[in-house]
Amino acid sequence: MFSLAAEGTILIGGHNMGASKKWRNLQADPKLAFVVDDVVSFRSWKARFVEIRGRAELLDGATARRGIQFRGDPHPPGEDLQLRGGSVSATVRLSPWA
């Protein structure tokens, strides 16, 4: 899951993110590439994508939840988001390179 933040960064979260190998890798090296893809047509299988590269900032606890709001999400910013039995307790903030 991801959300665009007001300051031009991207917040990336997910179930148990703080315990993931991705999280540990970013602790060692904060360079990050993030891909967003979309299928334009299933008939002729046309897909498109954008890759965003930048520096990761690891956020945890209340800081991870502050400001995260996904389109159509009824939870106000700062409230724990429940995801398949867990909640968002860690988030990666991606600051794209110019």
Automatic annotation (TrEMBL):
Stated name of the protein: Uncharacterized protein
InterPro entries: Split_barrel_FMN-bd
SUPFAM superfamilies: FMN-binding split barrel
Domain of life: Bacteria
